[in-house]
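User: tokens in, sequence out, please.
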């Protein structure tokens, strides 16, 4: 199944590119929280008010800078019994919309587990859970980009000063 979602951040692509390395470490936490949100939605939709959570493992590939965009390959999969949950293969794409706005796109796909039964369940409900999970993940990343302190230069970042960067 294919999933696409995007959000826009009130940051230039240049600013986003400078803070991106600091945010990549936090992506794993965002994926885990987003997945838990999706699990909670699925449970409420099918079984009432209970809440369960599933931990996911996020793999971040090498960032590729193209002419007009930055592409980050990612994959996430459930821990524990991964054969019962789909593995998401995707790309995060950061691209300028204007001089002051960056679009964050998520383009991914997954194959429902459990063959035909999984496909029927996915069409009936689980694809909406996957969409909700992706939306929450991208929105959290956008919020982190927008909420990052604005600085005059990278040297103003606490990490840069601590590392003794020139």
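Assistant: Sequence out:
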């Amino acid at each position: 199944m294919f999933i696409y979602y995007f959000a826009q951040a009130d940051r230039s692509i240049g600013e986003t590119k400078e803070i991106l390395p600091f945010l990549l470490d936090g992506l794993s936490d965002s994926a885990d929280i987003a997945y838990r949100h999706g699990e909670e939605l699925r449970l409420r939709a099918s079984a009432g008010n209970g809440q369960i959570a599933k931990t996911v493992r996020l793999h971040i590939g090498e960032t590729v800078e193209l002419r007009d965009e930055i592409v980050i390959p990612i994959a996430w999969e459930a821990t524990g019994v991964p054969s019962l949950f789909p593995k998401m293969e995707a790309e995060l794409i950061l691209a300028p919309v204007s001089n002051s706005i960056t679009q964050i796109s998520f383009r991914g796909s997954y194959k429902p587990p459990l063959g035909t039964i999984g496909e029927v369940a996915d069409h009936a409900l689980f694809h909406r859970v996957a969409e909700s999970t992706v939306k929450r993940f991208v929105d959290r990343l956008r919020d982190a980009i927008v909420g990052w302190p604005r600085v005059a230069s990278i040297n103003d970042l606490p990490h840069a000063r601590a590392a003794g960067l020139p």
